[in-house]
């Protein structure tokens, strides 16, 4: 897969498993990728959440996408975006966020992953290694 | 969910997203769970893989399972499995390990068990968790 195909794969399968570090321990949870484009991958969460605190302290992350036997892993640093227009758009499109965040967009965190490296792997080639691609 | 229900869920939905730490960076990949029962959760991998090296160096891990809108996360410390019988059983079930075993011996089969993990369950079908609510941990 080249960069373009990877981004298309993520767009089609937006559920990412986001790995972070907390006190030298690994953490991982499912997280929706809100947007995928040339500038990076956009995620959202609450600032009160542990995942946000972990990223604020150590922005290094890896996200794993897996669908139909194909895996795409993306590595890089998360950037915290304070973009009110984007926050409003996210709350508009994800109405379950309204109750908590509509009155205070400050409590909503928007994160952008600028990928530096990605790799793909497929069960169809189970003994094959991963193929790293610089993004 | 109680311990038994969590182990059943993992057995039925064995694709785990396994996170490790390398230096200050996290890594995460999909991996099949080899076995989940009262004794712990077992993972098998080829020892030349990065994930094996990362776990030897830093055994603190978290794994995430997701199916039917339910997410289960289990955190804890991995322990190496050295039992040759388990390694033989793994190789029987994963024949593509055989060439490596023939070349490097049983050390080629890397196996870890996560004992006494702490699990948290999130059911996305239910109402969202109130912000700041503390997590409920279930001892496995």
The CATH architecture classification of chain B is Roll
Radius of gyration of chain A: 15 Å
Q: Assign the structural class of chain A, choosing from mainly alpha, mainly beta, alpha/beta, alpha+beta, or little secondary structure.
A: alpha+beta
Uncertain parts of chain B = none
What is the share of helical residues of chain A?
10-25%
How many alpha or pi helices of chain A? 4
Topology-level CATH name of chain B: Pnp Oxidase, Chain A
| Overall pLDDT of chain B | 95
How would you name the CATH homologous superfamily of chain B?
Electron Transport, Fmn-binding Protein, Chain A
Distance between the termini of chain B: 11 Å
Q: How big a fraction of the residues of chain A is strand?
A: over 45%
Please give the largest β-sheet of chain A: 8 strands, antiparallel
Number of helices of chain B: 4
Protein described:
The complex is a heterodimer of chains A (135) and B (140). Chain A is of the alpha+beta class and 135 residues long. Chain A has helices at 3-12, 50-57, 84-93, 98-101, and strands at residues 15-22, 25-32, 35-37, 40-46, 60-67, 70-81, 108-122, 131-134. Chain A is built from four helices and eight strands; from the N terminus they run αββββαββααββ. In chain A, strands 1, 2, 3, 4, 5, 6, 7 and 8 form an eight-stranded antiparallel sheet that branches. The radius of gyration of chain B is 16 Å and the shape is globular. The mean pLDDT of chain B is 95. The termini of chain B are close together. In chain B, strands 1, 2, 3, 4, 5, 6, 7, 8 and 9 form a nine-stranded antiparallel sheet that branches. The longest helix of chain B is centred in the first third of the chain and has 10 residues, at 3-12. Chain B is built from four helices and nine strands, in the order H-E-E-E-E-H-E-E-H-H-E-E-E. In chain B, a hairpin with a 2-residue loop joins strand 3 and strand 4. The interface between A and B is medium-sized, with 33 and 27 residues.
